[in-house]
Amino acid sequence: MSKLFLTASLRDALGTNRLKKLRSSGQVPGILYGGHMDPTAISVNKLEMDKFLAENNVGSKVYVNLEGKEIMAFVKAVQKDVFGLNLLNVDLQALTKTDKVKMFVRLNFVGKDKLPIGAISQELASEIEVETFPDQMIDTLNVDVANLQFGDTVKVSDLPIMNDENFRIFTSPDLTLFTLIHSKAQSDAEEGETEATEPVTS
């Protein structure tokens, strides 16, 4: 996978009015911390950050170009307005190659188009918490549900990543992530078939 980059600038804008002015100029205030560096106030271009988040997730690894210095980091958190439209702030956590990072990985359930006709699927969790080294980081985990039958469930313990020595999983292995149930129409039809086959007694 090719490196993903963000360009950042140092900032000293503090206070509500100054932050509003910074945002109105097309910049998003943020903080870069961790990785044996002091917390550093930064700003990133809003269009660049919006594009990054449209193609990636919170938790994605990114290389920050800060005043000509390249820093390996990941998107720790973002804050948006009450409508969830405009970025207000971004937290970037700097990384070192030898330090493990604890993060949430988004689940992507694939193969739903191959599930039995009439089935109702329930996605009961959207992410799991893991720990790994920076060179092993992932922001999305595909979970194949194509072969599930009615009544089947997928738990954390069923995920192949549980057996990957590069990852430590913090989410409970007993947590149910996905389940497949009968549709109401099918359940009613089966109940009707059962009643139709019951012997009639006088």
UniProtKB/TrEMBL annotation:
Residues 6-92 form the Large ribosomal subunit protein bL25 L25 domain. Signal peptide: none annotated. GO terms for cellular component: ribosome. Residues 100-181 form the Large ribosomal subunit protein bL25 beta domain. Keywords: Ribonucleoprotein, Ribosomal protein, RNA-binding, rRNA-binding. Belongs to the bacterial ribosomal protein bL25 family. CTC subfamily. Part of the 50S ribosomal subunit; part of the 5S rRNA/L5/L18/L25 subcomplex. Contacts the 5S rRNA. Binds to the 5S rRNA independently of L5 and L18. PANTHER family: RIBOSOMAL PROTEIN L25/GLN-TRNA SYNTHETASE, ANTI-CODON-BINDING DOMAIN-CONTAINING PROTEIN, RIBOSOMAL PROTEIN L25_GLN-TRNA SYNTHETASE, ANTI-CODON-BINDING DOMAIN-CONTAINING PROTEIN. This is one of the proteins that binds to the 5S RNA in the ribosome where it forms part of the central protuberance. This is Large ribosomal subunit protein bL25. It comes from Fusibacter bizertensis. The lineage of its organism: Bacteria, Bacillati, Bacillota, Clostridia, Eubacteriales.
